[in-house]
Amino acid sequence: MSERPNEAGLRRDALLERLALFGLGSPALLLVLVAMVLPVGWLFWLSFLGDDGTFSLEHYQRMLAEPSYRRTFATTFQVSFLTTAICILLGYPLAYVLAQLPQRIANLCMIGVLLPFWTSLLVRTYAWLVLLQRQGLINQWGIELGLWSEPLTLVHNLNGTLIGMVHIMLPFLILPVYASMRAIDRDFIKAAANLGAGPVAAFWKVFLPLSLPGLFGGALIVFILCLGFYVTPAVLGGGRVIMVSNRIATDIELFFNWGAASALGVVLLALTLLLLWGASRIVRLDRVLGAGH
Amino acid sequence: MGWLSRPATETQITHGRRLWLYAVAVLVMAFLVLPTLIVVPMSFSGSQYLEFPPREWSLRWYRTYLASPEWMQATWTSLKAGVLTMLVATPLGTLAAYGLFTARVGLGRLVFALLVTPIIVPVILVGIGVFYAYVQLKLVNTLAGIVLAHAMLAVPIVLMIVTAALKSHDMSQEMVARSLGASRLRAFLLVTLPQIRFSVATSAVLAFLTSFDEVIVALFVSGGPNSTLTRSMFNALRDQIDPTIAAISTIMILVSSLLLAVAQTVGQPRRPAVK
């Protein structure tokens, strides 16, 4: 008889408790809102303010009209595309070999793949600066081995930027590709071989298509993260490789042009989110992004 | 040479026929590992130019580093910022992970997504946005400002690691504790937390490193007596190749490897040996 009110009370208690638990997230939420959402929202607002303080699209219009902005975007896409392509060319074979090694040995090798994750971005950038300079180790060895006779300019240009960025992004490609290769059922390969496919045909017709989701997801993540690069082009590009982030920083540091910088930032963010949304339809993002930055 | 003619995969291709593949793999592996490590021997060089192998060994650059008040101050700032970031981000992230995981409210997914945005948004945007806000709040070049921004960047990392730990943890143990009379808080502190403590420790280490290694936000909001080590290094890198940075780099590699090794060895969860 008195079951019903009691049941309602219990349900209310449960709901209250769940709400209280939900509330445990609020300090973190507050921090992210105050330190990120509000400032970035403010930039969003600034990007639509004209020089006279009223609503205007002039910063976006200028971005379309001025060739220097077009060059910045072209450089950004070029560098990101090349980095992604080189990462695929280098990372896929390594992931392929690692995926066929016994699990224990592969795990050991994975430490090597993850090592760059654990070392500071600046330290790695510095290492490349030292290695690639005119009297650096790479030039020294290249000349000693007779590969080239004059010191090559490997740094303070596009070459240096690409080498540094590939080094940083490679693990982001290898991890998802390796995971998707490990998940491939080897019986498919066996079946292909049984049906008369040679090693080459079995790879191209069976293995590669099965590993494509991981490859595609990894490549997309690499491309997205490349779009926002700042430190590597600034140091290894020596001022000759101006990507969107570098342009934003210059707009603020030299010209105090908040409107232009904000508009660039908004476009960069929109591009990132759009591509990320595309990537999320292909791979589990938390597995890829959780690994480091 | 028996190994070379043995089949490597189900397709019966022999190891010998795909030696090139192994060569590529070894080269790529070397590309990943060696450049960072080569800085270590170079930092012990006695000459003005960074050589490998160094013609004479010395601790000269370490002495320069230790004797420089600017480098020492920057190191001190970075250490303080790192520890404070860890102290703020770890509890906040852990609380949020536990709350969102146990509440199971529809809105939880949205909040979770919002909390991980700091790793998605390009850092330069966070950098100038925070800089703009700090100018109004007079927080530029303060330790509090650096910690606030870095803690925000570290929260998603803690959140993701602790949530992953909770997912593999059997929450019904907490129910048992509570049915035996423990309050929710006691049940969490005495039952759940001890079992996820390794993940919490790992996330704390990563929160520290997030701050310690962070460059872009620090470039904008740190400065003066509160310049971080990364900011000073970045500015030095733009000028010329200063061998002191090789010494600092070696120390930084040592610090992160040590911390992560500690997190890894202590962090192995002791699983009952059941198959």
If you had to describe this structure to a student in words, what would you say it looks like?
The complex is a heterodimer of chains A (293) and B (275). Chain A starts with a helix and ends with a helix. Chain A has two domains: 1-47; 68-289, MetI-like (MetI-like fold), CATH 1.10.3720. Chain A is globular, with a radius of gyration of 25 Å. Chain A has 14 helices and no strands. Helices cover 78% and strands 0% of the residues of chain A. With 293 residues, chain A is an all-alpha fold. Chain B has 275 residues and is mainly α. Chain B has two domains: 1-30, no CATH class; 69-267, MetI-like fold (Orthogonal Bundle), CATH 1.10.3720. Chain B has eleven helices and no strands. Chain B has helices at residues 19-42, 60-67, 69-103, 106-120, 123-137, 143-167, 172-179, 184-213, 216-221, 229-239, 243-267. The longest helix of chain B is centred in the first third of the chain and has 35 residues, at 69-103. The model of chain B has no long low-confidence stretch (mean pLDDT 88). Chains A and B meet through helix 1, helix 2, helix 4, helix 5 and helix 6 of A and helix 1, helix 3, helix 4, helix 5 and helix 6 of B.
Task: Produce the secondary structure layout.
The complex is a heterodimer of chains A (293) and B (275).
Chain A: H1 3-23, H2 26-47, H3 58-65, H4 67-100, H5 103-118, H6 121-132, H7 137-144, H8 158-182, H9 186-194, H10 199-227, H11 231-236, H12 244-253, H13 258-280, H14 285-289
Helix pairs in contact in A: 2-13, 3-4, 3-13, 4-8, 4-10, 5-8, 6-8, 8-10, 9-10, 10-13, 12-13
Chain B: H1 19-42, H2 60-67, H3 69-103, H4 106-120, H5 123-137, H6 143-167, H7 172-179, H8 184-213, H9 216-221, H10 229-239, H11 243-267
Helix pairs in contact in B: 2-11, 3-4, 3-6, 3-8, 3-10, 4-6, 6-8, 7-8, 8-11
